[in-house]
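FAQ: What does the model actually see?

It sees only this:
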Amino acid sequence: MSKEIKLPNGWKNKLAGEFEKEYMIEIKSFLLDCYKSGKEIYPKSSEIFNAFTHCDFNEVKVVIIGQDPYHGKGQANGLCFSVNNNIPKPPSLVNIFKELEDDLSKKIDTENGNLERWARQGVFLLNSTLTVEKNKPMSHSSIGWDIFTDKVIEILNKDSENLVFILWGNHAQKKIEKINISNHMIIKSVHPSPLSAHRGFFGSKPFTKTNNYLKSKNISEINW
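And it is asked to produce this:
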């Protein structure tokens, strides 16, 4: 699998050998079987590792952890909560943009839900599970991706400092045990889903909290 995945140098060095491990070989075999049987898997294979492609290890300032990719056709693009250009925004992303505007006290351009612009500034948009079958949420949640993304978070925790980890919802907050809070900042709330956003996501001001922390560490802020 590693020969087919073109990671930027920072991640390539940090994850050296990970793609040859048994669990990752099993993930690859599972996905190949899905493709051969005609199942639609999202995101497309070239975008599975987009979180890494668009934000190399040495560029990471902020880590946002999602659950699994959007399972609707054309939505997932390998960045958590993000959708491809000209795709209608899912409800959670609509709520993220609502909170962003309220947090910054200004109107922003929310027409496009593609969050590559965040990733290019050092926002690492990582789903816990990197693939999903069409119209079957959480269908790949038990094939081994959590082992890989746990390893990624462990590397970020150990080999970086002064990162902001934004954890929305119970699933993301399970990763707290892998983060040293004396070296990094954790911002957490309920998930931005319409089912929970009114119970503490709205009004949580994660974006200004993030920038205030970065500024306090003399790290350039994110232009959200």
